Amino acid sequence: MFNPEMETIAPDKLREIQNARLLATVERMWNNVPYYRQRMQEAGISPADIHSVEDLPKLPFITKKDFREQYPYGMLGVPRDQIVRIHASSGTTGKPTVAAYTRADIEAWAECGARCLGCGGGNASDVFQVSYGYGLFTGGLGMHYAGEKLGAAVIPTSAGNTEKQLMLMQDLGVTLLCCTPSYALQIAEVAQRLGIDLHALPLKAGFFGAEPWTDAMRRHIEQAFPLKALDIYGMTELSGPGVAHECLEQNGLHVWEDYFYPEIIDPDTGEPLPDGQQGELVVTCLAKEGMPLIRYRTRDITRILPGRDCPCGRTHRRIARLRGRTDDMLIIRGVNVFPSQIEDVLIRIDGVLPNYLITVDRQGNLDTMEIKVEVTEQSFTDHIKGLEALRDDIAAKLKSVITVGARIVLVEPNSLARGLGKAKRVVDLRKL
Ligand code: DLL
Fold first, then answer.
1. Is the beta carbon of 236 within 6 A of some atom in ligand 1?
2. pLDDT digits (tens, 9 = 90+) for 75-134
3. Residue 138, ligand 1, Cβ within 6 A
4. Helix, strand, or coil (residue 17)
């Protein structure tokens, strides 16, 4: 562990820290963020009403819309001259969501990231390749500072130029790798094409996140690379990567609860849900200065795993693998479908590669769904009957899980577009 004292802290001590930090954050918001002060006043409360994290449900939520309205500096918790870094989210339309950090925020972010690397057995003797994009996206720089905090030798390759990534991975003896799961697969494909034996490398752990992925995808990655593939969660508004991370048990992501307090709510009513129940993740940042955040609605769907016992010894609660986002959920002929459910079915099927593209459209009043699926070279050169049988098998297995039918189109290996960062898996052509 990077910080055994904090990672295995007794729950009552953790609660004391959370309460003290929450009170300081509420004070800071009240004093320095006029917008949130107004929201609190509208809700009829002041800092005097908040004594502990149990009082959180009294406080108003913050949403992405609030960020947009307060763009760019309306959410700052400190004067601007104390800000030392600014990142922005990858929003595709309109203004980005800006995240601003003080020096202490950068330090806390690195601490959380270093704990994540420790979850994968990382330590100062490791060689760490950071293949998340560097820039406004938080993946690259976030993991970079995490690696330096750990004391590892950090290689800032960023994403792209995959052949060079592979050369460095071999030459420098890389032991830890981080990138999006879809880019990890791309690295593996290129290695295969170049005849590079990834299993001859000293890799031991990979830190994959920034997009939804599944256990089935994990198995593909772990077969391709000699490493434990671990799930890392975060988002720009909360700091970046490193809000929660899987330990080697690979059974849920520990939320660093001295920095981030998680709640699960019903996304329709906003009511808090008990541990174990699935809903929208809401996070309160307990120690952020630059852009303090109270009850931020992430739109990510997960559940808090009940209890604090994990065989790894960490006492911070875990969330389940992220299911997808409330705004990614497709409603097809009235049925709710997460792209991750489709992925989970597809890539368990022999002969299917973990690359697919879902296109949703509407003909008349009827929603249609087409799924292009890459199949292995071997399946593709198979006779027509074999291909038809594979297609029918995929269609039937999908229908049994998601209940709505989809048109399956089998395509050649390497024919769907690859990206360097977050994979685009869904095209929705409906004008809803
Ligand atoms: O993706 C930060 C990050 C970088 C996380 C590197 C992990 C690794 P944003 O670009 O603001 O920040 O996107 C945040 O990505 O709300 C989730 O919907 C999704 N996401 C992030 N991690 C995971 C994950 C970064 N492990 C949004 N599983 C979040 C599923 C994830 N979805």
1. yes
2. 999 999 999 999 998 666 678 889 999 999 999 999 999 999 999 999 999 999 999 999
3. yes
4. helix
Atom of ligand 1 nearest to the CA of 208: 8
Which domains, from first to last, does the chain contain?
Answer: 68-327 (3.40.50.12780), 335-428 (3.30.300.30)
Residue 13 C-alpha to ligand 1 middle, in angstroms?
Answer: 29
What does the DSSP assignment read for 106-160?
Answer: HHHHHHHHHHHHHHTT--TT-EEEE-SPPSSSHHHHHHHHHHHHHT-EEE---S-
Of 159, 15, 148, 8, the C-alpha closest to 90 is 159
Secondary structure (DSSP) of 389-414: HHHHHHHHHHHHHHSS--EEEEE-TT
Element (H, E) at 27: helix 11-32
What the block records as the tokens of 113 is: 């990231």
Best mutation site among 117, 179, 235 for ligand 1 pocket (most ligand atoms within 8 Å of CB): 235
Expressed in angstroms and rounded, the spacing between residue 210 Cα and the centre of ligand 1 is 3
Site to probe by mutation for ligand 1, drawn from 208, 233, 246, 282 as the one with most ligand atoms within 8 Å of Cβ, is 233
Is residue 324 in contact with ligand 1, taking CB distance under 6 Å? no
Distance 47 CA to ligand 1 centre (A): 31
Token pair recorded at residue 396: 């039937």
In short, whether 211's Cβ falls inside 6 Å of ligand 1 is yes
Q: Rg for the chain (alpha carbons), in Å?
A: 22
* pLDDT tens digit sequence for 169-202: 999 999 999 999 999 999 999 999 999 999 999 9
The burial of 124, by beta-carbon neighbours within 10 Å (0-12 exposed, 13-18 middle, 19 or more buried), is given as exposed
